[in-house]
């Protein structure tokens, strides 16, 4: 499976060991969005590409990375898209099956919300930290061997039609979940296999990690 890691300028939640082990065990191409450079620098990693207006990246670090083969895509500060979305637009033209975003949450609230809502347009996005994994669920999704993990389901569309949950502490059967409802906040996986099923809608999953969780 071809995997892309995208480092952003949000919070790097968890230990450096977690991210170093992740990148060693599940290898992929590493992309950096401007201020995410501080995270990669602390991890001692040179990305494949650096994207953005580069107002948050050290010029010295940029030169060092370029010498090591990093491609730089610089844009003006005034533009129609965020640095993050410019990279996502490029990835859409490539054959990556997984887009794992690190450092995508925390920091400024407007950036946090914008990043989450980009999942709607780019459903391959998965936000990952040592604490949690956040992604859009397809209409059928199966969790396996995750008993005891906390999970919440948040409607990102006006409604989730005929939502059924099986294998959780709180199950549902053909429930129409409305945007703004908190009914599906704070559930727990209790069975070896736990399923999500719904007919229509956009459903965000927030899965609390005890260890690295793979989709």
From TrEMBL:
Domain of life: Bacteria
EC number assigned by the record: 2.7.6.2
GO BP, sorted A to Z: thiamine diphosphate biosynthetic process; thiamine metabolic process
Residue ranges annotated for the Thiamin pyrophosphokinase thiamin-binding domain, each copy included: 138-204
Pfam families associated with the record: TPK_B1_binding, TPK_catalytic
GO MF, any single term: thiamine binding
Keywords, ordered alphabetically: ATP-binding, Kinase, Nucleotide-binding, Transferase
InterPro entries, A to Z: Thi_PPkinase, Thiamin_PyroPKinase_B1-bd, TPK, TPK_B1-bd_sf, TPK_catalytic, TPK_catalytic_sf
Protein name: Thiamine diphosphokinase
Lineage: Bacteria, Fusobacteriati, Fusobacteriota, Fusobacteriia, Fusobacteriales
């Amino acid at each position: 499976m071809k995997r892309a890691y995208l480092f952003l300028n949000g919070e790097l939640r968890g230990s450096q060991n977690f991210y170093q082990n992740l990148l060693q065990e599940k290898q992929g191409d590493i992309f950096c969005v401007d201020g995410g450079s501080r995270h990669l620098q602390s991890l001692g990693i040179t990305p494949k590409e650096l994207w953005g207006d580069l107002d948050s990246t050290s010029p010295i670090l940029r030169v060092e990375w370029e010498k090591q083969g990093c491609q730089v895509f610089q844009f003006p500060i005034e533009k129609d898209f965020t640095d993050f979305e410019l990279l996502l637009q490029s990835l859409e033209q490539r054959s990556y099956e997984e887009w794992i975003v690190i450092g995508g949450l925390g920091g400024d609230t407007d950036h946090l919300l914008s990043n989450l809502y980009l999942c709607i347009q780019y459903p391959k996005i998965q936000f990952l930290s040592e604490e949690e994994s956040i992604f859009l669920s397809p209409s059928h999704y199966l969790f396996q061997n995750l008993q005891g993990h906390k999970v919440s389901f948040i409607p990102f569309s006006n409604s989730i039609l005929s939502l059924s949950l099986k294998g959780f502490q709180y199950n549902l059967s053909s429930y129409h979940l409305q945007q703004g409802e908190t009914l599906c906040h704070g559930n727990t996986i209790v069975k070896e296999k736990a399923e999500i099923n719904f007919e229509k809608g956009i459903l965000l999953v927030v899965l609390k990690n005890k260890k690295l969780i793979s989709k």
